[in-house]
User: What shape does this take?
Amino acid sequence: MDYNSKRKKLALPEYGRNVQNMVDYLMTIEDRDKRNKSAQSVIDVMGNLYPYLRDVPEFKHKLWDHLAIMADFKLDIDYPYDPPSPDILTEKPGRVPYNQHFIKYRHYGRTMELIIEEAKNFEGEEREIIIEQIANQMKKSYLAWNKDAVEDEKIFKDLEELSRGELVPNESLQLSETKTLLSKPKKVNKKKKK
Assistant: This one.
């Protein structure tokens, strides 16, 4: 019995064993012109596996790169693009540049800090409405991390601290109830009664 586990490992398994066999056959063709034509046929077959991407120019380049990888970079043909070097398979990816922002209160998040900074630009009644909305969102975020009830004064104090004293809520401001913020919205039954 011929099991796949006893066969040669596929360089790019997404193309399957038959395409790999075609690439292996390309390596045995002596005539360079015939090898070039056959390589183009193999590229066409590989493109047929992904017909929705077949005519995209970048995809053609990717197919030729994959052909070089499947041939272990030993296929001597006229590539329409510069073939990749074998080093691309062993090089480590570049470091991902993560944002390194200090977040004072992680349960509120970086976005809330940015919103608070932007809210400082508003004046008058608009500013009061924004402060109320921010405070309610802060309370909701606090409750998402800590299911215990939180006093409105704690939220107001945190808001004032995060805004460096520039956003001070009205003394008469009442935030939404905890159970209202934690409750899930009810599903509306869309079926009409006859």
Remarks:
- The mean pLDDT is 86.
